[in-house]
Amino acid sequence: MIRQWLTMVLMTVALMAAGATMPENEVLSENEQAQTNCPKENPERQKKQEDKQKDREIGSIRKTIRGFSAIDTNYIEPQHYNYTVMLQSTSTYEIYTLKSSKGQELTFAPDVIMKFGPYFGWRWFFLGYTFDLRNISFGGSKQKQELDFSIYSSQIGIDLFYRRTGSDYKIRNARMGDDVDVSQLEGLPFGGLNVGISGFDIYYIFNHKRFSYPAAFSQSTCQKLSCGSWIAGIGYTKNSLELDYDNLQKVVEANVMPVNTVKIDSGLMFSSVRYYDVNVSCGYAYNWVFAKNCLFCASGALSIAYKHSHGDTPEKSDGFGFDFDNVNLDGIGRFGLVYNNTRWYVGMSAIIRSYNYHKSRFSANNTFGSLNIYAGYNFGKKKRYRNK
Q: The whole model's pTM is what?
């Protein structure tokens, strides 16, 4: 009896399985038959469809690129030209302060440096080179060079920079301890310091449709109505500082009173220091249109920076700490004043940066700024403006 029930159950399951699969097989057969009877698609029609798909993809890319320059023309007048040439004068000032935990402090700064150079721009791209007329020969130990490359759109800005500041520093301020007269050190030339800096900044402008950062700093647009915007960015900077501490010790000993009574703290005695700085910044900028074609811009930002430093000292066992990692606050300020009638422009801009490094036995502050005075000419009018 049980055997008969099992046989019936197995037969029922087999019939249900067969019934479930039969319609699917019939559908597959009908689809195969339909595919067999369907005529092949015209190759020319297929090619046209592929071309349309490619055009749609290219159109999406163009929309994405144009989105970076999307603006509200009630607030911003777009650039009418493709190219620009400019002559710029740049005055730079730098201060390097080194301080030990025992209270000794030295501040170095060169004289204000004036440099001249040409710049060329094409749409978003801006490239220039400036040089110090007093040290125009290449390869000299005091040669100063600066190379800047910038890309500006309404939403995003990118700055790349490389600077070599030379070795003509002076001791601007010194503190060697109580009852030590350092007046003879102040203003004394010191050629044992070489500094270099390179890096990049990338920043995003939130109110980019109404606020134009390029209007103040790249002259590629014109701000028509006053407006402000929050700005956020990231950056990377590499600083190198080489110090001839033996020469510094001799200079200090010979120029402090009483003579030969001061020894530089071991924390300040290093031959080279390299700083690697990665930062995230946030700030605010405002464009004030105080007359037709006239603009004043003020921008400030604070950055939280992670720093890694490596230094070489006379004795690696002195506890200086050649490698250290820490987090500090840095700052950057930008100011611009410009007249721009879309064809000709003239103006000035200033940038001030401050970098701080702190450890238990050693700290440093590097502040440098530049003042640019420029005049330029736009040419190569875009098609949409040629009949205006």
A: 0.72
